Amino acid sequence: PKGSYPGSIYIYDMDQLTFANATDKKGIEYMIKYFKVCQDFYPGIMETMFVINISSYFMIPLSIVKSCLSTSFISLVQFHGPDGWKEELLKIIDADQLPAFLGGNRTDPDGNPLCKTIAVQGGKIDEKHYIHKSKNSLVNAPGVEKTTLSRASFSEIELEVKEDGSLIEWEFETKTRDIGFGLFYKEFVDGEEKITELVPLLRIDTEDYSETGVYRCERAGTYVVLFDNSYSWLRSKEIYYRIKIVNSKEMEAGMQN
């Protein structure tokens, strides 16, 4: 208990977190709003929070979310990779109360270790609920630019970020099939160009649904968005995209709204 109120323990499992999930702008915004409500209106209710099975993808939204929360709130959160978290959970939760899939002994009456009678299991949303890009296409949206990549080619878009902590937001779709996408930081060290990969280059299928994402820039400088079609020896790709740089003041104003 915390004072006269019971403390809550939250467990978030990041297993199977994809690049699209990790960089989704709307998802990150909802996450920030949820945690700010917990922080600002229900202080003291959260005893601790476990975020388990984190991967390198998880670090992308984490840097954004942390910048919007207090250090006292963040200090209540424990971050764990694929190992070690079961032992930590058992230090504060009795094994007979902790579901078996989290390292405890508790199961459903039928022996199911997922304990579906007491725990709502997350999962992928059925695609029937997705908004197909035919209903919300970028093609005719304001501020959208178009580029066509011939087969075995790529396109680099340089962005000058002037303020530490700014966000780079992107949205793009291809007319057909997939396209490679990545984000890099470019600098000159001792007179030589150095390129650092920030968002790993991945082939992303946007034939049916647009791809949205966001990245927090720890420092000002030159960032490079890469659209890559070098793997395709037969087909050119038509890409529609919007890229925006949001500084800290604009980000704070957006959160207040």
From TrEMBL:
Protein origin, superkingdom: Eukaryota
Record-level GO cellular component terms: cytoplasm
Entries under SUPFAM superfamilies matching the protein: CRAL/TRIO domain, Supernatant protein factor (SPF), C-terminal domain
Coiled-coil ranges (or none): none
Positions of the GOLD domain: 127-245
Stored InterPro entries: CRAL-TRIO_dom, CRAL-TRIO_dom_sf, GOLD_dom, GOLD_dom_sf, SEC14/CRAL-TRIO_domain
PROSITE patterns attached to this UniProt entry: CRAL_TRIO, GOLD
CDD domains: SEC14
Any Pfam family: GOLD_2
Domain CRAL-TRIO: 1-110
Name under which the protein is recorded: SEC14-like protein 6
